[in-house]
Amino acid sequence: MSRKGWLSAKEVRIADVARLAGVSTATVSRVLADPNKVRQKTRDLVTEAVRRSGYTPNSVARNLRTRRTMTALVVVPNLANPVFAQILRGIDDELTQSGYGLVIGNLDNCAEREARYVELALSRQVDGIILMNGRIPESDKRTMREAELPMVAMCAAIHEEKIPNVVVQDREASRAAVEYLVRLGHRRLGYIAGPPPNVIAAERLAGFLDGIAEAGLTERDFVCWEGRFVFSAGVAAAEAFLRLKNRPTGIYASSDESAIGFIKVVRAAGVRIPEDVSVIGFDGIEFADYVEPTLTTFRQPLHDLGRKGADVLLKMIRQGMSPEDWNVRLPLTLLERDTTGPFLRDPKKVSRQSRARTRVLSQ
Amino acid sequence: MSRKGWLSAKEVRIADVARLAGVSTATVSRVLADPNKVRQKTRDLVTEAVRRSGYTPNSVARNLRTRRTMTALVVVPNLANPVFAQILRGIDDELTQSGYGLVIGNLDNCAEREARYVELALSRQVDGIILMNGRIPESDKRTMREAELPMVAMCAAIHEEKIPNVVVQDREASRAAVEYLVRLGHRRLGYIAGPPPNVIAAERLAGFLDGIAEAGLTERDFVCWEGRFVFSAGVAAAEAFLRLKNRPTGIYASSDESAIGFIKVVRAAGVRIPEDVSVIGFDGIEFADYVEPTLTTFRQPLHDLGRKGADVLLKMIRQGMSPEDWNVRLPLTLLERDTTGPFLRDPKKVSRQSRARTRVLSQ
DNA sequence: AGGCAAGATGTAATCGATTACAAAAGTCGA
DNA sequence: TCGACTTTTGTAATCGATTACATCTTGCCT
């Protein structure tokens, strides 16, 4: 009952191949799934019939019967963010290697879309889910837990049983960023935060405050600006910064994009980086090495993070929901470049040394 | 016959809902598909049963029966490239609006993966395909044409019947870029190309040559460097540039990333932009506005391009393969910023004026 | 009340594979 | 050559929805 136009061509089914090869559909199926199960001679017959007919199995039918789709759903808050793009590549590599495919669900910070993806998952179109959005409605969590669908949370610590977290050491690295600025002599700091409801943003903020406390600083020694991990957030922070009478000399931005936005604006206003103000970012996107001056930042092991997340998901899918604790927290690397320098009481002409150092965050 | 662990929970099917509501499965199905087809009273009964049981239709089964998946496959060469990320958002918006989902196939410049996606498409897991890879093996083209799967080519002119192209005016804009540099007085030009097998790269190169011819320049007046649209390509081009005795003063890079990579390296070598060398890019990625100096470039209407591509695909899916010519070629916008300036015979101290102009490419 | 059209619901076939189970074919030693 | 056992193949049920067609209600007009 082929439809209007484009399906009119011969739609070849497994039965056609079976007829052509003079065997049953079961045999054809077996040849395709596990060739050793059928005799060499029959196998050749079938293989030839498949080739001649140009048969491709209908995987929708297969998925229905096997109750598996060999596909995982990955929900990202924002595809345009290079951080997620890199993580996705890691996930993709790992899944592909195991014969799984992936569907990417882009939220674009639009809650409404979220429902669509929950739906997708619940309707058995995928075998598991990786969530990278920082906040998930309670109702959805409940629904999905009830559906007992394997699920891992990345970039967003979900404190739920049965949902492992695969994340980086956001809090520790944030603490270390402050420590780094303090060690350079900065005693008045600024922080460009992430969006408040986001769990990662909260972690990094906590780390920042850890560092503040550790350095013996108080509330009067720092300023916080709210951001959304994007360029424009840095721009807004910079504008606020420029209005201050008593400006911080050390800025920690919780994302590279916001660091870069900040730098652009303050430099345009005549502020020198790093002579007047040091800036350190977070993420380690490729771009950070192409701005002027090159951005000091903590690099996330994005590709590894993706692989690890997919690895954990695959384990859950294959072994069923496991009681074991599969939480993972990967360390970051400090890339010390040109936007940070020692605090100068009297910033005059300073010859900038060019660097090329990289050291691993010690914990 | 629930599997090992995670499927042991009650798997609720349409029959369960039907029983609960005291109606047939047909009625339940109708309520879900088109509520007006059933009487108010029955409808309420069913709705309530659905709610109570927590039923979600199994879309794999539905897809098998309806022979549609309401899903499109989008193949991209490189997810990490912000150009594709933006196009994807446009595609996603359009598809979502029409109730379609999308699967993203990331090639990562790895031909082997390509086969996977052809397979995916052929196995009826998607209703249509959008291809953004610049080169598609002949064999695949044939296979897919035979399968008569709706397909549109974006960012890659495929000269095939039944495969509409939705692209930007690569060639025209390239020509205009040269014209722009020439009008500024530059008579010695450099071109950072894309990867040769890529159709887009070829279009842009052709446009560059158009511009050269139009300006009355000859082969001795320009240099070409091969690239791959990425940062590192610009870096390599810059190194070659620096080795030249008679350097070009106007550079046209066929991607923003390569322009940015180029600028970073030549500036480090003491070349001033735009006093010594003018650089114009192509793409208009957000990032181009955050480098120093801000990059003059042709902006692609990425979001619109994505929407348009998806729109054409949906038309093909809904109306069948059409003989009509659905080719689309969108215009670009010149963003005139700070990396370009007039040719200076004797480049001394020049006060740079800050700009904020944008004008639309006239064709 | 009777008749008829329109509307609502149910029955059962169908989509295209996989796979449990049964049946047939092959292998091998006595 | 005859079981006994293993390997290979076939038959038919199954996955979970949709939908053509048949049947049953309902409403309305005379």
Description:
- The structure is a homodimer of 363-residue chains.
- By secondary structure, chain A is of the alpha/beta class.
- Chain A has 3 domains: 14-57, 434 Repressor (Amino-terminal Domain), CATH 1.10.260.40; 69-168 and 303-329, Response regulator (Rossmann fold, 3-Layer(aba) Sandwich), CATH 3.40.50.2300; 170-300 and 333-360, Rossmann fold (3-Layer(aba) Sandwich), CATH 3.40.50.
- Chain A has helices at residues 14-21, 25-33, 40-53, 59-66, 82-97, 111-122, 138-147, 170-183, 199-214, 231-243, 256-268, 302-319, and strands spanning 71-76, 101-106, 128-131, 151-154, 165-168, 189-192, 222-225, 250-253, 278-283, 296-299, 328-330, 333-335, 359-360.
- A 7-stranded mixed beta sheet of chain A has the order 7-6-8-9-10-12-13, sandwiched between helices. Chain A has a 6-stranded parallel beta sheet with strand order 2-1-3-4-5-11, sandwiched between helices.
- The radius of gyration of chain A is 27 Å and the shape is elongated.
- Chain A starts with 13 loop residues before the first helix and ends with a strand.
- Mean pLDDT of chain A is 89; it is low at 1-9.
- Chains A and B meet through helix 4, helix 5, strand 2, helix 6 and helix 7 of A and helix 4, helix 5, strand 2, helix 6 and helix 7 of B.
- The structure holds a DNA duplex (30 and 30 nucleotides).
